[in-house]
Amino acid sequence: MWGIKDPERNLVVKIDFFILSFCCVTYFFNYLDRSNLSNAYVSGMKEELAFHGNQLNVINTVFTVGYIIGQVPSNLALTYFRPRIFFPAMVLFWGALTMVTAAVHNPQGIMAIRFFLGLAEASTFSGTHYILGSWYTERELGKRSGIFTASGLAGTMFGGFIQTGIHSSLDGVRGLSGWRWLFIVSTFVSILDQESMFTSTRLMA
């Protein structure tokens, strides 16, 4: 399996189940959350919050700036905190920011939130490669890195379908626009996922 000799197979399978699945699910929801803004923008947010000009592009740039700034601190944090604590904490942080996005009333509020969202999400990509590199040999790492990267792309691919369903079924419920429900539902799904992963990934302790 995966080109591993029999004596190593059980250990590698266990690492795949706990470590790789944890990283992939986290990255999937990372990209799912990241795609929320574009889907919300074309689902009524633009008109409701009175976006104009290139404000969406500016917001995306602000997110990228936060993402870049957060790379080094997040990796340094991994030398002080256990990954099974640090990663779920970051997901809870960006989940809270996603929830707050559902309550904004202007593009400036989204801009501020997206900057801090970039800081929080910066932990996922580089931090996960640090974790994978710590658990897998050089021979084993290539395939796992590919699977990990594909999980993020899957989040983007399925995000549109998932969020279209949310928008169409919840638009107007409790007086909230469908695009606001995109952020609310994404928050709860991410938090519930990380709660389950937190309790099952004791191998990462």
From TrEMBL:
<keyword id="KW-0472">Membrane</keyword>
<dbReference type="GO" id="GO:0005886">
    <property type="term" value="C:plasma membrane"/>
</dbReference>
<dbReference type="InterPro" id="IPR011701">
    <property type="entry name" value="MFS"/>
</dbReference>
<feature type="transmembrane region" description="Helical">
    <location>
        <begin position="111"/>
        <end position="133"/>
    </location>
</feature>
<dbReference type="InterPro" id="IPR020846">
    <property type="entry name" value="MFS_dom"/>
</dbReference>
<feature type="domain" description="Major facilitator superfamily (MFS) profile">
    <location>
        <begin position="19"/>
        <end position="205"/>
    </location>
</feature>
<feature type="transmembrane region" description="Helical">
    <location>
        <begin position="145"/>
        <end position="166"/>
    </location>
</feature>
<dbReference type="Pfam" id="PF07690">
    <property type="entry name" value="MFS_1"/>
</dbReference>
<protein>
    <submittedName>
        <fullName>Unnamed protein product</fullName>
    </submittedName>
</protein>
<feature type="transmembrane region" description="Helical">
    <location>
        <begin position="85"/>
        <end position="105"/>
    </location>
</feature>
<keyword id="KW-0812">Transmembrane</keyword>
<dbReference type="GO" id="GO:0098717">
    <property type="term" value="P:pantothenate import across plasma membrane"/>
</dbReference>
<keyword id="KW-0813">Transport</keyword>
<dbReference type="GO" id="GO:0015233">
    <property type="term" value="F:pantothenate transmembrane transporter activity"/>
</dbReference>
<comment type="similarity">
    <text>Belongs to the major facilitator superfamily. Allantoate permease family.</text>
</comment>
<keyword id="KW-1133">Transmembrane helix</keyword>
<dbReference type="InterPro" id="IPR036259">
    <property type="entry name" value="MFS_trans_sf"/>
</dbReference>
<feature type="transmembrane region" description="Helical">
    <location>
        <begin position="12"/>
        <end position="32"/>
    </location>
</feature>
